[in-house]
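U., I forgot to send this yesterday:
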Amino acid sequence: MLILTLTINPSIDRTVMVDRLVFEDRAYILSRSDSAGGRGINASRVLASFGAKTLAIVPSGGAGGDKFQKLLANCGFPTKVVPIKSEIRVNFTIVDRQGLAVKLNELGPPISADELARVEKAVEKGLESASWLMLCGSIPPSVPAGFYTKLIRMARDRKVKTLLDTDGDALLHGVEAGPTVVTPNQPEAERLLNRALITRAHFLEAATRIKAMGAESVLLSLGSRGVVAIDDRRLLEVLPPRIDAVSPIGAGDALAAAFVWAATKKKDFADSVRWATAAGTASAKLPGVQFANLDQTKEIYKSVEVRVLQ
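Result:
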């Protein structure tokens, strides 16, 4: 079955590798590269590498959009591009050899009501053959905060499961629409709940509270501390092995994609979270913005521990 991804705010991702990240002193650029970016595109990239059937829907416009579409054509999976007038954004990631990273994102272009309607129409058509819809990433400033809410309800009407991976007001409104699963990281959960999450008890409570807001299940991603997950039957703590993380940027995209991939393979919730944790951890071991393939994920999967708390 098809896994549909939507990236409403894609970007050209410009990654610069430097010898060291320091303040008030010079660093030397070792390499630089551009790629088609956005959480949904990254998710489709992971899904395709795992052998899943995926279609990525993206808006694109301006002179940068031409370059973006050329980069997108080399990603190795089908895409549906919805033309817009405005220039798509460029995001910058600066990474050093020790794994330190700085990520600078533009807010994104204005998208008109007519253009947004064409995006919705593309999603509606994709849902005809999809088993999952992944709604990934931020929304541009001109897009209503309830945009994902509308698509979650559209998918539910068509018996398509949904994963929501976003932040801010889009996350708040989207959770209330009852997605199948929501995958916030720690900072996103802190903004959603308007409180700091410091202790293990905080993490467990946060996952429970987010589920109570409307999501059917929650994967709270905590980086090297693993994942706290909850569905209707159990609360889980999923612990990855210790690794030397090189670049954690993009690990959350791998986590979300691997969860959906595992779910389409009829794996239960606990095992799907285990695969998700393995993919995120394996991706964090890679330099720059790279994603672990299935073999690399399998290797980490063997060492991921699942604890059932209730």
